[in-house]
Amino acid sequence: MKPFMRNTALAFAVASMALFASGCNQAGKPADGKAADAKPGDKVDAKSDVKALGGMKTEKEQESYLIGMDMGRSLELLKDDLDLAVLQKAMQANMKGDKPLLSDDEARQIRERLQEKVRTKQIEKMVAMAKKNQEEGDKFLAANGKKPGVVTTASGLQYQMVTEGKGAKPKSSDTVRVHYKGTMLDGKTFDSSYDRKEPAVFPLGAVVPGWQEGIALMPVGSKFKLWIPSKLGYGEQGTPGGPIGPNATLVFDVELLDIVKPGAGGPAGGPESAAMGGTHPQH
């Protein structure tokens, strides 16, 4: 997977799409401010039921602040490179319909330069994050491996048996049904089949190496805790645009419920939101 590169030329469009994606405003009405059940000819006071939020009493204030908040997040990477007064000036001129100070060709040249700057900053940010995550992961695993009950395998995977089951151990060619919760080292949950209230079913050979090795150690009915170093997880790329950063060490609480017999069916997919594919424990 390629590192995620934000196209800042689309930052304003992204902010606008985020605002109107649901088609409704915060009061539960369509974005045009009319009640959902309004009929042609009905009089609707769009401001009559506005609730004060964040100290702002009108829709205009609230919606303006929301757009500004989204734009600010979109442009965070360039916060030290922007002149907010000039940015505001350009927005006001454009909204008034004034002639822009830049020709189309000049705008293109600046846009290309800006996009290159953003790509460079994004790479620098990813490199710094990868270094930080690797150092934190190495330090954590070195200390964690010394704790009672924690086993470190030759590959660097660490696991702890919480409950030992009595069933068979799966092979790499098997399909398994598991419940699991995945967290970062800081304890933040990035995915959980428990939260979805449905176990995950996936071919063991399709998931990242740390999962393949760890689950193969578990008899059916077991509960293990797995600590997966980045080299056995998502490596230097993480999940671009997703919750797992580069070189991130991951923690999983896993319960092996069953080895699924061929043709038995069951819910498809694997740890679905952040553990497989773009966010699953697959390659």
UniProtKB/TrEMBL annotation:
GO terms for molecular function: peptidyl-prolyl cis-trans isomerase activity. Residues 173-260 form the PPIase FKBP-type domain. Keywords: Isomerase, Rotamase, Signal. PANTHER family: 39 KDA FK506-BINDING NUCLEAR PROTEIN (PTHR43811:SF19), FKBP-TYPE PEPTIDYL-PROLYL CIS-TRANS ISOMERASE FKPA (PTHR43811). Transmembrane segments: none annotated. InterPro entries: PPIase_dom_sf, PPIase_FKBP_dom, PPIase_FKBP_N, PPIase_FKBP_N_sf. It is an enzyme of class 5 (isomerase). It catalyses: [protein]-peptidylproline (omega=180) = [protein]-peptidylproline (omega=0). Its EC number is 5.2.1.8. Residues 1-27 form the signal peptide. Residues 262-283 are annotated as: Disordered. The keyword Nucleus does not apply. This is Peptidyl-prolyl cis-trans isomerase. Belongs to the FKBP-type PPIase family. GO terms for biological process: protein folding. Residues 270-283 have a biased composition (Low complexity).
